[in-house]
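Section 4.2 – Deliverable D4.2 (structural model, holo form)

The reporting period included a commitment to supply a predicted holo structure for the target in complex with fe (ii) ion. Inputs used:
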Amino acid sequence: MNILFLGDVVGKAGRQIVNDKLSLIQNQYEIDFTIVNGENSAHGKGITTKIYKNFKRLNVDVVTLGNHAFSKREIIDHLDECSDLIRPINIEPSDIGKGIIIKKYKDKKIAIINLCGKVFMDSTTSNPIDVMNKILSKLVADIIIVDLHAEATSEKITFFEYFKSKLTAVIGTHTHVQTADERIKDGCAFITDVGMCGAYDSVLGRDIEEVFDLNIRKIPSRFKPAEGPAILCGVIINIDDNTNRAISIKRIQIRP
Ligand code: FE2
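Output (structure tokens):
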């Protein structure tokens, strides 16, 4: 089976390119299951119920989040309408929503787990390796995919090396620049960062002048998302139907 994972969708430009290209990608690569990280989809921070429902209309199976999971409060009151939305297990607030979902695809149980890194991440409550060990002690699934939303490349690679024999894929998110280190080891697919779906002419999807305001002019800035044509970044993981192990991981990028 082929699993598509699209990286952090940033604001309107990111949503637009996902709207425009997702079904083409799903058809071209015979995608069976689609995961999208939507943690920056609502004006750069968080997600709304409306945006989640639009992802579902586009045949997205599971939407993952990150450190900005609940930046838009509206989503908190409507989580019962968002059954395929997961948030990192190890961030505050810990009692809202879920961080793991098990979906059925044909005869397979696919578990998708959302975790945050600890290095340079303010809201993370516990080490993702400790959390993952606890999850694995109880989890029963054929295929296990982890969205590791983390800043530090070393933390993501360490996590992959430690768990590679037990997981089907570890996909890094959060840093928005796609890394060229995709690999398969012990039947587990990995990439340090899958990249973003957001405005190409930007700083990680944010308006360049707004970033200059804060970092150079030293004036307050909301880091609003940039506008204009977007880049779409993702990976396609091919999984052996007999062994449930990853065979290949292919990076995709559509640039304006
Ligand atoms: Fe993030």
